[in-house]
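Bug: token stream looks shifted between consecutive jobs. Job 1:
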Amino acid sequence: MASWRSAIPLPLLGLLSFVLFHPISTTTGIRLTVIRKPASDFPVFREAPAFRNGESCGSADTHRIHIAMTLDANYLRGTMAAILSILQHSTCPENVAFHFLSARFESEIFWSLNSTFPYLNSKVYRFDTNRVRGKISKSIRQALDQPLNYARIYLADIIPADVGRIIYLDSDIVVVDDIAKLWGVELDGNVVAAPEYCHANFTKYFTGAFWSDSALASTFDGQKPCYFNTGVMVIDVDKWRKGGYTQKVEDWMVVQKHKRIYHLGSLPPFLLVMAGNIKAVDHRWNQHGLGGDNLEGKCRSLHPGPISLLHWSGKGKPWLRLDSRKPCNVDHLWAPYDLYRSSTLNLED
């Protein structure tokens, strides 16, 4: 074995090990035909330490925690920080399995993921962007219109059939608590569990055209709908599949194409299908809005109360503001998880 390893250049060996032990699951046949080192301008990350289970952890096979995230070059730095934060604060990090949804084969991304987290239990799945072709309507921010932003709608169709529950997380988060606590929430028969924000003005998420149409507005009759952020969700995948929720969300996207009823990307159709019918989770699991508003990304302060997850939803992303040397105060809470090798910030081992 030693002679085999020494005969192969280390960078090539790293990607080969990723292919062998981190298979890419796809329904459209991605093939790893080209193996190359990342371009010189592609971000390079430090290797994260190997995180091991505590003595109280059960078998990884019977106590598996499934987490889904998207994988995209533009948000890769955020994804790396999110993964590190989850593993670092987990009592049983070896029990955590990551399911990454990617819109295209980018060898540089797979290379970076493997070299940064060589011990990560993960799979990468191809999200066919043709599934949302013609269904996406222009929103108030271009980043919200990217096809991969809609991949969470199709998650249940993409991941293996034996995964019955999963946590979906955006790439602009860091977890500062044991993810097993979120995994263990009771859904009480609901399809989705997430923090609810009932003090928010729910009407602002839809246009006047929606509220003035009695047939559309009656969607929420008999319910008490509240805003929830789709960047942090615990999903009963079995119930999602059986209930045909992908189709239900898509149906509202079709309505949007014919009659503009909302302005915000993939969030409103989730609200139309599920608002008022989710299991509420403690707000500590989504301290959202740290990226500011969707247009200017102005700084925001933390909300009062305990925090388990920080979420830079909104226009401003912490890595961009830190690099510009115009960070918000909350961005310094993200910085310790930044594995970007060229960063001038210090990372404690």
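Job 2, same session, no restart:
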Amino acid sequence: MHTYNIAVIAGDGIGPEVLAEGVKVLKEVAALDGTFQFSFTHFPWSSAYYLKTGKMMPDDGIDQLRPFDAIFLGAVGSPDVPNSVTSRDLLIRIRHDFDQYINLRPVKLLKGAPCPLADVKREDIDMTFVRENSEGEYAGSGAWLYKDQPNEVVIQNGVFSRKGCERVIRYAYELARKEHKTLTNISKGNALNYSMVFWDQIFAEVGKEYPDVKTYSLLVDAASMFMVKNPKRFQIIVTSNLFGDILTDLGAAIAGGMGLAAGANLNPEKKFPSMFEPIHGSAPDIAGQGKANPLATVWSASQMLDFLGYPQWGKKLIAIIEDLLVEKKVLTPDLGGTATTSQVGDEVVRKLEETK
């Protein structure tokens, strides 16, 4: 029996609550399958850890994570610690140091999920974002000059390498070809005359190798409008780190809310562990109340199963999420229900057992 070693970083706020349900579900999947199992190792790295130690993770934190097959992340963020510290010193550092250059985020309106858009059918919202995850404005390059002086200047560099752009764009083309879907490139070449012109150029260059893939290109402002007015025009989307971050939150808003939003940070070559997370944030206002929706975490668990080579189980988890949304009997308050976080997790496990 194969054992997958999973690093668990529950993090802040509702992170520990939702991640406990994700772990519960993964354990049940492994037990039902019988050919593999999970070994979970928990790390206390969080804002509370920072307030005690002055660091979001130990100096050798990356080395501690390196041997694992995958990382399961809850959420990071606390009113007590600046977001620039919680995100950059943990989440972004892991993404960068493990070369998790693909951020894969599904924006799919599931059966039974609420949608704020009028006259939109469920099948009209079914897109996958392939977001560059290691460069761009999030590369951490820049300068802060004449700090606290009247002539203070800050410079935030957008870093776009040929290698970094080519590999994420190629990944998107390959996905579009495999799934027989269209590919939309989103950039801002009319205003960002170096980075986005370069990005668009590479998109066109790589595209010559994929004449069978139908492509479109949109400016990011137009794309955000069309995601609301005509979401069915999008299938596979490739875009930069910053634009992808913003647009996928818009995608979550039109596809059931943040409680159903999952994301995978992938190192496709598996040289380093990939990381899977719900993207709803730490939600400190409801932490510890049992109100947090764990379904985004279950969805991210399905992404982990897909990546590890068990897509049949990934599909079953998505089908179970849809069952819960359609039945509307065991849902958390954000989806109009009265169930607790753990009750929703228990219901997912119960439905899994029915598949035996």
